[in-house]
Each structure stands twice: as C-alpha cells, then as structure tokens.
Amino acid sequence: MRSTAIEYDGSSLWVAEIAKNRLTRIDPASLQVVGHLEVSGEPTAMHADGADIWVATRNNTFGTNIAKVGSFMLPTQTYWSYVGRDSIESSSEGVWVSDSAKDRLYLVDRDLGQELRTFTLGLENAGPIEVVAGQVWVWGSAPNTPLGLYKFSSTAGELIWRSTSGKWSNPVAMEYDGINVWFASSFNEGLLRQFDPDTGDIVSTIEVGADISEMLIIGDVVWVATGSSLIEVDRVTGTVIRNLYVGENVTSMTTDGSNLFALLGGSLVARMNTEV
Questions:
Q1: Which of 23, 222, 263, 276 has the fewest CB neighbours in a 10 Å radius?
Q2: CB contact set of 96 (below 8 Å; sequence gap of 6+)
Q3: Is residue 152 within 8 Å of 135, Cβ to Cβ?
Q4: CA–CA gap between residue 139 and residue 154 (Å, rounded)
Q5: b (16+ CB within 10 A) / e for 66-103
Q6: CA separation for the pair 217, 234 (Å, rounded)
Q7: Rounded Cα–Cα distance for residues 47 and 129 (Å)
Q8: What is the pLDDT of residues 75-84, one digit of tens each?
Q9: How far apart are CA 84 and CA 88, in angstroms?
Q10: What is the pLDDT of residue 59?
C-alpha cells in the first residue's frame, strides 16, 4: 500500500492509502488490519481530534471533500479546493480546516458539520496550522512578504502578529507542547524552532543534522523523523538524546500516549514503546 498518513483515534490506528482511495483500520495491539473504508478520492490530509477521524479527499471531478469518518461529509464540500498535509486541526471550538488554494480558513462544528466561521487570511501557499489558546497559527506568506509564521485571532480572523525572521522553507509540521509552539522545516535545513506563543519570539533553534520529514511531541520528548532514522530530542533542554535507525523512510507518526507508531516506506506500520 502507498500511504501518506497515520492517526490514532483513541482505539484504532487509521492509515490513509492514497493509491487505493481508502482508509485502513489497524488494531494497535496486534498491528493487524481489521478493516477498510473507501473514500471519495485521494486522502490528502487526516486528523484525529481525540474521538473522531477527519479526512480530506481530493477528486479530479469534484475537488476536495472533507468528512468525519463514519458520520458525514461536510455539506460545503463543493467549496473546498485543496487541503494539504497538517491542514486540519481541532480545538474546543470545533475543527479548523485550511484551504491553501482558496486562501480560506474554516471553523466547522464537529457534531453537525456546519461552517461556523470563514476567514480570508491574505496568505499565499499556506501550510501547516496549529490552534493555541484561541489563536490560529499558519505558515505561509503575504504578497511581497517573506515566508514565516502568522498568528490570527480565532474569533475575528484578524492578524495578531507575524514572524518572518530566519530561514523558512518546506514546512513539515507544527505542534504546541503546552508552553511553546514547535515548528519543523526541512529542505536542507533540518531545523527545529520553538516559539513563544504570546510574543512570537524564537525561543530556541535546534539543529538535528538532517532533513526532517515528520515531528511528534510525546510528553517531554520531541521525536523527529529524518529519512530512515528517528531522532529523540529533549523538549526542555533541546538536547539530542539518541538517533535510531529504522531501516525505511518515516512518512508519518502518531501516538497513543505510550507508544509511537510510525509509517515506514509508505507501506509498513511499526510500534515503539517510548517509555522504555
């Protein structure tokens, strides 16, 4: 199977198979396939909100659809253009979806699938998003402005601040650890950056020495995938703890709180106990 993402919904693992237009459900204990769910196109993004799985599927005829697995497809499906990797996030307010081609940010009711808010951000090539304390962080660039991080109000959609200092290229992932926002970029950089969510200042920059393909925070550890290796970074000190060779390129990661599940080579699922 050629797969693009893996997520954990609280009981099962879900793998997005882009080549077969389906989601595969896997038992996290045995790592055995327990079922498949056909979707309306290529799954370009997937997100677990703690209870449900949300998926964006791209179809050449109908564009991009957004659906909550097992419940509904959003009634606004015809308005979506392109929802890429890490462009779906959730908060207490609902589910956030970034449509980079339309320059739109949507807040969707997680129970009914109705649009609650729609914002035009004025950004080009918007990438990963993260929701922190009533604010939405988006990677991208405004016209004639360098690439960087932009923070918007989740209630009114107005720009609060932007950070365009340093080098910005090929965004991989963005995550909030409860204190700072972590941003991973690749393209011959291999850098992790921590940002103060209030001021937007860079708290630290950590070089992991290789191109980053994925990032995941579990407790006090930041796990970084670089090709066929997993690098363990201390979240507090920024120190690289160890570098683990896994034999295949890591394309996506998720966790159940204790175990790290990695999608290897787009076809294999591996499990590692992070508490050992």
A1: 276
A2: 88, 89, 90, 105, 106, 107, 108, 129, 131, 136, 154
A3: yes
A4: 15
A5: bbbbeeeebebbebbebbbbbbbbbbebbbbbbbbebb
A6: 10
A7: 12
A8: 444 445 667 6
A9: 8
A10: 75
